[in-house]
Amino acid sequence: MRDILPELDRWREENRPIALATVIQTWGSSPRRAGAKMAITPDGGIAGSVSGGCVEGAVFEEGIEALKKTRPKLLHFGVADETAWEVGLACGGSIDVFVKPFDPEHFKALRSVLIEERSAVNLTVVRGPNNLLGKEMLVRDDGLVTGMFTDAFTATALNIANGVLTQGESCRVMLDEDVEVFAEVILPPPILIAVGGVHITISLMALAKTLGYRTVVIDPRAAFGNEERFPNVDRLIPLWPDEAFRQIPLTRSTAVAMLTHDPKLDDPALKIALSSSAFYVGALGSKSTQAKRHRRLADDGVPEEQMKRLRGPIGLEIGARTPEEIAISIMAEVVAAHNLIDHSKKAD
């Protein structure tokens, strides 16, 4: 929802009726993951997408119908259905989309999670009796709960939310044989930390910002870690890595790139990053540089299991030569690592 937040805010201020469509499951080559959203207004307003263009027209019509009848609806589009060809989903995938009238009160709680960049799980009843269909419950990582189901289901829903929050992956779950919920995990935006304010870092931070990453540059050297070189990063920390990492947590939403070529900076940072839950740790340097780095870290007591996590030489092999091309190769590898985490169970 973060990508359509500006439109939702504007449409709410204008008091426009809104329907919200959410992808709750995908199979095959469907281009959008579970949790992708599209907001719809009767006057033709569309924000976001649920399929990259394949079924948007049909979902728009169903969204308008949901607003007219004030009734949510679960939609399925797939190659096995004749409808799939009518809406253009002929690319070999299928998706389930849940459409419901927008709930302004529940949105306030969701919005606060997004703005505060907290973790949470939003549960929506996508199959069940009319009195429950479309009801939502938001469970934040700090324990705050907004919205409740019936007494018979609330405790079970809370347990599901806590489990999903731990696993970090959205899913569909049955509360009983008749009631199904979509448990959507909401995580803070990913963060890319660059150790070393070198030329590559300038291009890398620009790419990361474009892709929605929070950006952090760590460099104690005044000539490299200064605001003139990095006026648009979210955070510039002019400290040595061991001090800097005390100010910023390394979580499963964090990627770290070592770009200085200087062991005095890279090695202390690597020891911290490789022992953290960061989803990506990479280091610049040739294969011979990596071998020397490996020996230094081993001599310094870094376990082999941790060193296996290190991506080095950093970046995908695309024949990159210029700083800009190297930045693209690094960012591509970071995105691949992040998507691998997100889609670890998509094969089923």
Description:
By secondary structure, this protein is of the alpha/beta class. The protein folds into 3 domains: 2-101, no CATH class; 104-186, no CATH class; 191-342, 3-Layer(aba) Sandwich (Rossmann fold), CATH 3.40.50.720. The protein contains 11 helices and 16 strands. It has helices at residues 5-13, 56-69, 82-87, 104-116, 151-167, 199-210, 241-244, 263-274, 287-299, 304-307, 323-342; strands spanning 19-27, 37-40, 46-48, 73-77, 94-101, 120-127, 136-140, 145-146, 171-174, 180-186, 191-195, 214-218, 235-237, 254-258, 280-283, 310-311. A 6-stranded parallel beta sheet has the order 13-12-11-14-15-16, sandwiched between helices. Helix 6 packs across helix 11. Mean pLDDT is 89; it is low at 81-85 and 343-348.
Concise summary:
With 348 residues, the protein is of the alpha/beta class. It has eleven helices and 16 strands.
